[in-house]
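TICKET #2291
ISSUE: user wants both folds in one file
ATTACHMENT 1:
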Amino acid sequence: MDLGLTGRTAFVAASSQGLGYACARSLAREGAAVTLNGREADRLAAAAGTLRSELPDAEVSWVAADLTTPEGRAAIVAQVPDVDLLVTNNAGPRPGSLDEWDADALVGALQANAIPAVELMRAWIPGMRARGFGRVVNITSAMVKSPAADMGLSTSARAALTAISKSISLDVAADGVTVNNLLPERIDTPRQEFMAQRLMATHGIDRTEAFRRIASTIPVGRLGAPEEFGDACAFLCSAQAGYISGQNLQLDGGAYRGLV
């Protein structure tokens, strides 16, 4: 299937590794000109080089900037003034508990996992509307629908982004711009390595057992592949997905127990 992305311009936040990189790879494979982003220039250059070697025809650039700061976002928009496909992403807060979730922690979570996405939408959606085409995909978390006790900080910030994104989607849909969210759980990325190490330290188990326990929580019995996640992102960015907006697509191997 031709997803209609050839010649489109894409920006993928926090994309030197993990879920962001997977989305960037799928978009580049489908013909979009992709700009990677992260804080470390060396890692971005390496990631861009890997993409170019795997996909010789891909157009890949990168911008090293901290998207949690106004200065970083300004640098990003200056380098990439027009975007057709925006994928927002950032690492989530560490697990914790109520005694750690003071005002500073709450504000910090919003500054990392909600405000940058909204500010980038504010920067680029007007151009999308003027051109009659745009796709926004926010990488949030399955915790938005199924919060874990120790993930309240991440859940609260991502739920805030989910709410405002729904409002934005209603305003821009008639101009050919869609806004959707991808909700991952247990995708095989460095984040899961972190969670495995945490299990190992808490329960005194080895890495194999930690990953076995993680996979046992997923009905399909395995972690998700980054490529599966990236391809879902590419479809939501596609020409064919113009009638899908304001939605939360879970990539969780069937783990969600609810109906809606």
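ATTACHMENT 2:
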Amino acid sequence: MTLHLVHWQRQTQRQLQSQIRRLLLAICGLATLASHAAGIRFIEIPAGPDGPALQGAVWSPCKAPAERMVLSPLVIEGTRDCPVEGTQLPLVLVSHGSGGSALGHHDTATALADAGFVVAAIHHPGDNFRDLSRQGHLSAFATRPIDMRRLADYMLSTWPQHAQLNPMQIGLFGFSRGGYTGLVALGAQPRWTLRPDLCPARSSLPLCAEIQRHELPAPPAADPRMRAAVIVDPLTMFDAKGLEPVNAPIQLWASAHGGDGVTLASVQALRDDLPQPPEWHVADAGHFAFLAPCPPALVHAAPDICRDAPNFDRVVFHQSFNTQVVNFLKRHLVQGAVPAK
């Protein structure tokens, strides 16, 4: 009985010590996670021959503790103006949807920064939440890829921390019209008459009249620096011929229920017409579910883009979505990097 008690005490002590070790490891792990946050700083790219000034934000790896930044009606986790941690960092450019914002995908940008990426996003001039002056015109589609090229030029040559970037590891994340933007940056050529459903009879959209009058802008040349892209629920006007030049790896996301001119059928057609099969995902959600989860103030200010179906949890979805975006870009920008031709 005494020997059994001693054995039990020793076993219990070992179990307790093991539990304490696991707890300490967990605490250390939590402390490590808590001590790293995405650094965020705001940028302005001066006006030039290719367009007006561009405003935006950059997320980067950072060692400082996370802070809660209230940029009403948004709430963002990050550390403002944190020193950029690391060298030879991969760069991801973000193109938002129609009437959107450089901050619309801030949680995805934060996840990428936490994983060692630098992420840069801008407000597309004339097609953002502050300025919709060109939203309904084809000119907004023509200048979007140029905005991305200007952003890449700035980040690689003028951004104060540009020496910490790897110019051979550049990717793009594009949502909705930003998905169109990303595909054009990869070499796709739009066919403006492909989607008559976007221009029904007697449409008042200026771009529909511009298409009817054949006032079609020539798309800019592809940017060969773009090595991989995450294309999310894109507004697409591309057929198989127009997609022939696209050879970069693509992770393609679609929403099952669509919205804002995007349909599951149109994204499936894009998938089938790409010369190389993309990594394909469908979310059982509406179009705007790919935007960052909304704080209460934004739900009140913009219910149309914040409210999801009752059985859909945007916070839970984004945990998986962000992980898959990070893993794809790691595989194709970092692990599968190839020298520039």
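RESOLUTION: both attachments delivered.
EXTRA DETAIL ON ATTACHMENT 2: Residues 36-335 form a domain with the Rossmann fold fold (CATH 3.40.50.1820).
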